[in-house]
Amino acid sequence: MRATAPHAATTPPRKRAGVRRRVADEATALIVIGGLKLILHMPDRPVWALADLAGNVAYRVSGSRRNRARRNLRRVVEWMAATGRGDRAIRAAATDPKALEALVRSAFRHHARYNVELARAPRFTQQWVADRLEVENPADVDEWLVRGKALILIGLHFGAIEVPGIYARHRLGPVVSPMETIANARVQRYIYSTRDTIGIRIVTLAEGGELLAALRRDEAVGLVADRNIAGGGIEVELFGAPTRIPAGPVLLAAETGAPAYVSAVRRTGRGRYRGRIRKLPAPEGENRRERSRAMARDEAVLFEDFIIDAPDQWLAVFHPIWADLEPPENV
Description:
This protein has 331 residues and is α/β, with parallel strands linked by helices. It has 2 domains: 5-115, no CATH class; 126-311, no CATH class. It has 12 helices and 9 strands. The protein has helices at residues 5-41, 44-61, 63-83, 88-91, 97-120, 126-132, 138-144, 162-172, 185-197, 208-216, 248-256, 288-307, and strands at 133-135, 151-155, 175-179, 200-204, 220-224, 234-238, 241-245, 260-269, 272-279. Strand 6 (234-238) and strand 7 (241-245) form a beta hairpin.
């Protein structure tokens, strides 16, 4: 009897734990989806004010995220100061702790604004984007983004991540794009459905074959490729230090020969945007491996060009980028 009693006693708690998890997940989904729908339907002025308030609160209470953002942004502005790149006022943060802290605080506000844009993406019609987005190189865009032409659009966790995808979709037709898996399945289904309504077909990171198939159908594929979520990746130098970026764009380009472009859109005001697109040069090298590494290096250079316009809008600063800046337990 003593041998069987522990088993009998532990079974019901495991069942109760499963029920509690399902109830908690359902409650979380209701709160998150309810919040996203509320933001979707709110008027512009209060929703942006609410985002800035939320960003300021998050800056105050999120100590570990604040410290990581500070470390990552310091590396960016020190590189900018050493190379003389970017705006002088931003470079000043390399030696002025108050300026650096202002940049960190601004990064939290931009993160909150990104969440607003995520919620309001179903409202971003072609006219909405045309009225609010200034494209810096429209002639290049007209030449490069051609409907019915297979191409790879590479983006960053930077600025208004939703806007370039929607802009491209209206020019190119449906765009296929992978998205990392969200722990709450119901929230993930909701986000997938909102992207469907604007013509962006989301697939999971495990469905890489869908991206290859889309390119072979002469469709556009969009990838956000400045942060290595799935592991592995290709080592590059970014802001003077080694890191890894996803290999997806490189592998797709090598397999299909499709041209690749890097684009980003930054905020210039509440609901106002400015962006550009750059074409990746044909990589040089004697074999596929060398060409792949060359393409990854060219990607990293273009990432730097975009990020230095507004380092506080680079959302990757809240995540590990460079191993040498991470505490030992996180490496």
